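Q: Can someone sanity-check these two? First one:
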Amino acid sequence: MKKNVVIGFLGTNLDAGKRRRWRPSVQINDHPDFPITRLELLHDRRWTGLATKIKGEVERAHPETEVLLHEVNVRDPWDFEEMYGAMFDFARDYGFDDEREEYHVHLTTGTHVAQICWFLLTEARHIPAKLVQTGPPRGDDTGPGTLQIVDLDLSRYNALQQRFDLVAKEYNTLLKGGIDTKNAAFNAMIDRMEVVTSNSDAPLLLMGSTGTGKSDLAARLYELKLQRRRIKGRLVHVNCSTLKGERAMSTLFGHRRQAIPGAGADRRGLLQEADGGVLFLDEIDELDLDEQAMILHAVETGKYLPLGSDYEVTSRFHLIAGAGRDLAALVANGRFRADLFARLNLWTFHLPALRDRPEDIDPNIAYELARVEKLLGQQLSFNADAFTRYQRFAIDPGTDWPGNFRDLSASVQRMCTLAPRGRITLAMVEEEIATLRKTWRDATRDPDLQLLQAHLGDAAQEIDIFDQVQLAAVIRICQKSASLSAAGRTLFAASRAARASRNDADRLRKYLDKFGLDWARCQADAVSG
């Protein structure tokens, strides 16, 4: 059986016994069911006399208990930093043997600051101990008083663990938008994200193609941080693809009115708006290198320089960045700063595409139905055969869902809006599937072929791919040029330099005629387009 060792401060008021006969450092030894082998008593040098007196009294009454005195000097026992440092040094140098001895920290004596420090040191296992709280006898009782032991190993308490698990599940549900997702990889990502968001203020990087839910997830991460009291400010959502040139600098970092011609007043900037909250930089890969450098400085220092200002502004925010392109590849091409990527890449989460989560199609359809019901104010549902057809189409490996959840959401909303009496029929599903396929097919058509079809109609399909590329380039040059001769000079510049051609306009005219086109036709189509 392990021997009990108690560590505590000398009670300069209670142990002196001036106001009451109960003295905690003495009476803690009087509990028959809590035998103490060693009492470690910490005291300031000014109270050495009282400590020595308590030591003698305890050892006379309890010969089996050894009392060791430790001089711990602090100038201000209410200074948290000084007190914690002194107690940490004591714990580091003590030499615990928790295989043979059971350690207990006596919380009753010492300042409130000391009690907090005891808790922190034991909770972090710098001191492998349980907490002991003693109290005076109640009423007319003349015994040693009360004694309570608290074990901070919370894993032993199943009820508490169940509560922790329930809270974690609630946070996960929040991050998933209330959708009962089944995809194992996605659920594992959400679990990891919940832990990171709850315990870290470092930037988060959300990677994923368009429509995978980066913006919605950023908003839920903000709500989680708000619930966990890690932030107090607002969520500021910035679409970086809309920020170019000086406007980007002014929008993000603000400006002094003298820095922008015509500006009537200073501008705070979005980084200042995010102070104390979350800044979500969506499509961060669209920012220019100069803005990237200033973002990095603001994240690392909490400060930045508005345009036209001689003084830095302070803004502390949590950064969430979203990107649809491979940032590592952009770094390799010199289009994204390596130092900013390294800062963002601490916690990177890749959001899977909808086509990679077929088991999550059904719960997302149900979620979209419920959302549109609230939007339209009526109950909505599929006919059985309609749902079977739509589900089969949705999970088919050949259904690419290029817009991911954005496509699915729009699809369900279209059917619900057109549904007679709130019932989505098989005919409506077939029409919706045809609409989706045509939309995706048109969006992925070759732009060169589209240009040629605008000029030649169905005849464009009969032209070889090699000639399609060349002819499309020629038409674009014609559309940008002021005359046939100007277009020819652009197209045959290398030939002119080598003096291999002298009549550029005639060469171009003959080339266009080969495909049934002429200069006027190209220009007319450019104007009408």
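And here is the second, same format, sequence then tokens:
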Amino acid sequence: MSDNSYETKCKVVPVATIENGKRYFVSLELPMSYGWYDDVSMVVEKNGQDCYFPMKYSRSEGNMAIFEATVDLETTAIINYYFMCRVNGFFKYIKNGTTFDHRDMKQEEKLKMSVNFEAPDWAKGAVMYHIFVDRYRRGSKDEMKEMPRRTIHKSWNEEMVLGPDANGIWNADFYGGDLKGIEETLDYIKSLGVTVLYLSPVVWSQSNHRYDTADYMNVDPYAGCNDNLKSLCEAAHRKGMKVVLDAVFNHTGNDSKYFNEYGTFDNVGAFQSMNSPYSKFYRKHSENGKTYYDYWWGMTNLPVCDGYSPEWKHFITGENGVIDHWFSLGIDGLRLDVADELTDEFIELIRKAVKRNKEDGFILGEVWKNPMRMGRGYISSGKGMDSVMDYSLVDALIRYFKYGDVDKLAYIIRDIKTEYPKDTINTLMNFTSTHDISRAINIFATYDFQEYGEWAWNPNCNDLEWCRNFKLTSEQYKYGRAVYEAYVFALAFMPGILSIFYGDEVGLQGIGNLANRKTYPWGYRDKKLLEFFRYIGKMRSNEGFLKEAELNIFDITRDYLMFERESEEEKVLVTVNRTGEDKRFAMPGEYEKTDSGIYVLKKSMPGHLSPYGAVAVKSKK
């Protein structure tokens, strides 16, 4: 039974930074007309247990009794708390101005806050452009020199190699997209409203995706050089953009300075001798009295690094280590590859190294499922990553717009709102596509995907030849684009970072996570789709309040999605049609008459949605 008759007021204000945390002044106002209060406490959840912080009576003002306390809390990304008191001999539980007669509050009913955990302001609500470097643009006029176990394409539009090449090597074909090519197109990227560049790995590696590092200290020769990375960062900064670099610390390549299986480098690598100083970088296991190296998912070209090794941790995170080196070239943040396979301690050391270089350095992790439920501290501790790639929300939105899955979208949004720290919510990477999934326009255009599979982007067929030859008909493309635009419109108004995978803004196709890495189609762009993305980018730039606005879900039906983003001074109602039919909807009263601004898709208007159309109506509070 709850009693809403007596409104309570509370405030929790940081007053000092202490070692590994903050000190807070806590004040709670309780109505004296309710009775006599004893045992007033702030109750904080810690490691699944309730910790009680007694509050002392301070004074009375009007009909309110004021209780206060000073509380020291350790650094953490999220704390759930509420207040408890005994009044007239009965216990009451208080949160958000409501008094309960029982402690059985749902997680979403509790108050939450962060201690010493703040994501960089520039990452909140940003627009990101995700570039797979080898396939974006070649700026250098120099001829690419032949290198062992690599093949070079003769032209930009030549068909890519899917699967092993003639020598049996995967991902060894290069087009030569480079850092100079990215720098030459910064004005184009900026026209999309982009504020953050996210680059796939650029360090020297043996493959075109470069997730198999050969030398952490040098840019791959086909991508340019260290000076090119520095020049790109400086140019991006001049245009108001930050640069985030993909960081691969879980494994290296076997053809690397550190493992050196082929003897490519002039040093003794771990493969060549267990006595090599680099041997301590790698994880091992013993079998039948012999010691063997571990390989990532059994792939013998990817030896796994030992996250517990002092030598490895120092090499990456120590003074003058890898992270210091990259930040000295001007980057602003890291995206941690397979972050859930890194140890918590290693991630904490990564954070210290990033913050040592830039106080507002950003750390984004590749974590596919809810990071708050994994029993790990890489976000919840407040000492690790700032945020993650939001696979769960993207999957749920795709399923909603493609199949009308109302329930999944509803509970994924609920989980995010109630379980994630606010600064993490505001910096979640909400992507159109990535290098690991099929292109979004392909997903929406056909039913060649697993409706009931683990992820909405998994194709029914994994045959490489089928993926290579797959191409949408003009009718399929037109339909796919219509649904895709509705999806992007909704995604653009969600909390977090809107991330555009290179080419998604111009209709680049690709089914499966190899065929999705085609070269950017310079000269063959869908200009209508491009203008839509520029419109979305302009909207994000204009509506700065979206960076930290709260998300309120009004309605999720099989016809349309309606939600609100709300700040202290402004709010916007977003309604998106997921069907191919005209739909009418009732406008909430406060939005019926407003001249604060309207954004539309496909000639929709307040109260009326065109097929796959949308409307966003602003209102002052």
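A (reply): Looked at the second one. The longest strand covers residues 76-87. The radius of gyration is 27 Å.
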